[in-house]
Amino acid sequence: MTFLKFYDILLYRKEAIMSLYIRSLTSEEEIELNNIARNGTDVKFARRAQVILASDARTPVKQIAKVLGYSHLQVRRIIHSFDQGVDGIRPKYQGGRPLTFNEEQRRAVVELAENHPRDLGYPLSQWSLSQIQLVLIKEKKISYISRPTIRTILKEAGLTYQRTKTWKQSNDPHFIKKNEL
């Protein structure tokens, strides 16, 4: 048991909660924490940022805990973990489903998308997700892959798939003049 945990338990048992505040925030940290607290997509991270901002405003631990729905021990741990900076309060990766496709398969998807279809012998002017899917399965690089997965792999590689928009050209010889009005 670490000293911090022992100290927190001791304080909890005596119900004598001492005031604890964070160190002074740098202007960059304050801007980042405000941004995370207001616009953060990760709820845990946003709430932890709110704890730090409240502590910076010299709000007592007990009051922060009551307002944000944490125990005072959780608030104290968040404040102590902020000693490592903003990354100290960032939630850690807690597992999840492993990747379905290995690096070699992901590379095959990206390489196919980066090449022009005609260069590979396909009579297409551009790739669609369905066409990439069919070629990957046909060439037996991947047994099955969904279109959303292809989109995700391309996005992770910094490529974006965008549907092309087509339009009909007018047969009217005065079309351009009419549109200028």
Automatic annotation (TrEMBL):
Superkingdom assignment: Bacteria
Short name of one Pfam family: HTH_32
SUPFAM superfamilies for this protein: Homeodomain-like (SSF46689)
Entry protein name: Transposase
Organism: candidate division TA06 bacterium 34_109
